[in-house]
Amino acid sequence: MKKSIIECEDVYFQYEDSTVLEEITLEVKEGEFWALIGPNGSGKSTLINIILGLKNPDQGIVKLFGENVDSFRQRERIGYVSQKSNSFNTGFPATVLEVVKSGLTAKVGLFKAFSKQDEQRAMEALRIVKMDAFSTKNIGELSGGQQQRVFIARALVGKPDLLIMDEPTVGIDQKNVASFYSMLNELNREHGIAILLVTHEIDLVTDLATHVACLNRSIHFHGRKAEYQNMDDADISKWYGHPVRRVHTDRKGV
Ligand SMILES: Nc1ncnc2c1ncn2[C@@H]1O[C@H](COP(=O)(O)OP(=O)(O)OP(=O)(O)O)[C@@H](O)[C@H]1O
């Protein structure tokens, strides 16, 4: 039986007097690729922060790999890429390899030197995202799409079982988005990494994902992609808050 990686049970959260999440129950199991979709302000980033243990829910239980998030210490099992990762300016003085190695800081320690093995792991992560040829380049010299691949490599360097990404394609030009998603597909299918991906690009991602969760304060749907695809656009539009018309894409998101 597949093991649980993320479990949220009846989670509630509010900022001051406004409730942004209620009755959130969700389970992600090993090897699954979940797309978390919802309109602006629907609580997606807040839920990700709660899952990562960066915010405490007002009510409910959150578990990672079967352990309560408060006591969970195996941080290297989770790679996280935020929305704002690709905001390095051209003057930032770090090479691609250094950025990827910084993903090992939790393991190696802040002031300890990286070993030859750490360097090899960083190069391996860069190979997976097809950025090894850029290892000595300054991160600021790369395009948004290339930078985001490097941040994925940094998230992968600790060999995580789960990759959480909050709108990783923001700032990537459209022609590179399809190859970015195709890389995520490879990470999930060939490397067996579970993925939780927050996105607005519902057509592109729902073809890649194995499961879909639709959030707008509460979870309006969660389940296998095929069930999501069988829903009417009219039903999706109701909870999304504005008309939605889905377009079928191929498995590479094209
Ligand atoms: N620090 C905060 N203090 C008060 N309200 C907040 C705070 N952060 C977010 N909110 C509000 O909580 C709601 C949910 O925000 P959240 O960022 O989780 O949504 P989201 O679905 O990720 O949005 P987007 O798709 O626009 O990134 C929004 O109404 C937002 O304005």
What does this structure look like?
It holds the Pfam family ABC_tran. InterPro entries: AAA+_ATPase, ABC_transporter-like_ATP-bd, ABC_transporter-like_CS, Metal_Ion_Import_ABC, P-loop_NTPase. The protein has helices at 44-51, 96-101, 105-108, 116-128, 144-156, 174-189, 202-208, 225-230, 233-240; strands at 4-15, 18-29, 33-37, 59-64, 67-68, 78-81, 162-166, 194-199, 211-216, 218-224. It is α/β, with parallel strands linked by helices and 254 residues long. The chain has a domain at 4-86 and 161-240: Rossmann fold, CATH 3.40.50. A six-stranded mixed sheet has the order 6-7-8-3-9-10, with helices on both faces. α4 packs across α5. The chain starts with a strand and ends in a 14-residue tail after the last helix. Bound molecules: adenosine-5'-triphosphate (ATP). Adenosine-5'-triphosphate binds next to α1. Residues 15, 20, 38, 40-46 line the site of adenosine-5'-triphosphate (ATP).
Shape annotation: globular
Tally of contiguous helical segments? 9
How do the strands of the widest beta sheet line up side by side?
6-7-8-3-9-10
Fill in the CATH topology of the domain at 4-86 and 161-240. Answer: Rossmann fold
| Low-pLDDT stretches | none
CATH superfamily of the domain at 4-86 and 161-240: P-loop containing nucleotide triphosphate hydrolases
Helical residue percent? 25-40%
Estimated radius of gyration? 18 Å
> At the first level of CATH, what is the class of the domain at 4-86 and 161-240?
Alpha Beta
Give the strand tally: 10
Beginning-to-end CA distance, first to last residue: 33 Å
Mean pLDDT: 86
Order of helices and strands: EEEHEEEHHHHEHEHEEHH
What is the CATH architecture annotation of the domain at 4-86 and 161-240? Answer: 3-Layer(aba) Sandwich
